[in-house]
Amino acid sequence: MQLQRGRMFSPVLLATLVALLPHPPSVDGELFTALADMEELLETEAVLITNLDNYVQVQEDKLLQLRQKVYEYRREHTEAARDVSAYLSNPVNAFLLTKRLTTDWRYVENLMTYEVGKEFLENVTSFRSVLKFPSDEDLNGAAVALMRLQDTYNLDTASLARGMLNGVQYSTELSAGDCFELGRQSYLNGDYYHTVLWMREAMDRLTSEVNRTATKEDVLEYLAFSTFKQGNIQTALSMTEELLELVPDHERAVSNKAYYEKELQKEAQQKILRGDDGSEEVPIDTTTKIQKEAKPHIYDSNERKLYEQLCRGEQQPPIALRSKLVCRYTTNRSPFLLIGPLKLEEAYLRPYIVIYHDVMSDREIERIKQYARPRFRRATVQNYKTGELEFANYRISKSAWLKDAEDDMIRTISRRVEDMTGLTMETAEELQVVNYGIGGHYEPHFDFARREERNAFRSLGTGNRIATVLFYMSDVTQGGATVFPSLHLALWPRKGTAAFWHNLHPSGHGDYATRHAACPVLTGTKWVSNKWIHERGQEFRRPCELQIDHPVEEF
């Protein structure tokens, strides 16, 4: 099956697809981290659908033959029943009756016992060794991604269940069973806040479903306990009593009911003791505790708040600063650019962040993707203590590294980066290509190594990362911005453009204002590539200044 590359994907559709496909025991569990891999799941599903259709067809052919035999037998039997003596007195009829109950019936009996479609069942087993299948980890990762999108973009649960993202209808609705599974995955992660949201949505959808995809008792069990974990014991007790009306001998519900009643008695006793001094009873405020425990994806920090507001397009630099920004053609003192200057758009002044337009062609983008796809591995981050690379939930994507020597086109891009930045590429890292998965993101981070990260880049021997060039290789329908929280700045992906900024001051001290993040991809697919440029060899290209260029407290 051939799939169109670069098509638009809805995270609701992809998460549902992951849930539908079977989960084999031996899978790397990282398909959800890149949409390039998720595309192959649609190919897997297409093969399974064809196989299932063939299986159903042979089963229907078998039933059709059996129905034909029923019709023939019933027709002859009805005729014989009209006058048994007359029917049997005919020697032909007597022979046919005997034949029907001997050779004919043996054929029918063999047809009934024959396992048609066995080869199609065997196909499913063989497919596992040649096709990509998601694992339970992929299912959980896809569910967590939806929760992340829901939180970051303030998506209403009911709208999200209808396949509507920010007011745009992208996919079919989720069933009660789909909502139940999202709630169950949240429950497995200890995320009771989202468990309650999605179990309530599952309950609402159960009432309108003709062919129910979940059971009320299953929803109530998860909903009641998660409500209790959020601190609402009375409501949890009411839900448990409702569950026991449906299943009186439900073992866990019986045990939980007794526990909830005991806890309510303790709570009532505490209220009496608090009122012994005659003062007016003041309710216990558990809001903060519930929020912290129930919603692990949201942190009570100004940076987190700014990050999410920027992702939603609700923040921007002040007008006084934006009024000073300009667009212009630039040669950066490069002789080559004299005949083809670059289009530069200023995004921020201090630190100086710019966007270069039309600096990567569609042909170059497709060639880079072609090289990167077979090499994709889940993106890593560097442990600041050990310097070792490791996976992290705050970076969901897959990446590949391309060397200049592999292709003239890649070498050309490196030379272009040198013209764009005025910095040598002799000590730059290889071109990193990144594809983001379902809700793919990279939370606020620095590209440079801070003073406490003593082991970072030691093996390279090229010093710290002095600058970053970030190429956008795709348009993103919704989400996916690169944001700088402390600057209130968001850069939105546009195919063929590149962002550039210095991570270090000329003195070599880190510029903490360059802390940035990649917002979750809400809809569409996001491809980027980047060059991290290092200090070594830049001494005369970007020399130190005569005055202190960084806050004194950084010393």
Automatic annotation (TrEMBL):
Annotated keywords: Dioxygenase, Endoplasmic reticulum, Glycoprotein, Iron, Metal-binding, Oxidoreductase, Signal, Vitamin C
UniProt keyword Oxidoreductase, yes or no: yes
Cofactor(s) required for function per UniProt: L-ascorbate
Presence of keyword Disulfide bond: no
InterPro entries tied to this protein: Oxoglu/Fe-dep_dioxygenase_dom, P4H_N, P4HA-like, Pro_4_hyd_alph, Pro_4_hyd_alph_FE2OG_OXY, TPR-like_helical_dom_sf, TPR_P4H
Domain Fe2OG dioxygenase: 427-535
One term under GO cellular component: endoplasmic reticulum lumen
Gene3D superfamilies, sorted: 6.10.140.1460, q2cbj1_9rhob like domain, Tetratricopeptide repeat domain
Enzyme Commission designation: 1.14.11.2
Superkingdom: Eukaryota
Pfam families named in the record: 2OG-FeII_Oxy_3, P4Ha_N, TPR_P4H
Main location: endoplasmic reticulum
Subcellular location: Endoplasmic reticulum lumen
Major enzyme class: oxidoreductase
Transmembrane segment boundaries: none
Signal peptide region: 1-29
Gene Ontology molecular function, alphabetical: iron ion binding; L-ascorbic acid binding; procollagen-proline 4-dioxygenase activity
Role summary: Catalyzes the post-translational formation of 4-hydroxyproline in -Xaa-Pro-Gly- sequences in collagens and other proteins.
Membership in a protein family: Belongs to the P4HA family.
Name of protein: procollagen-proline 4-dioxygenase
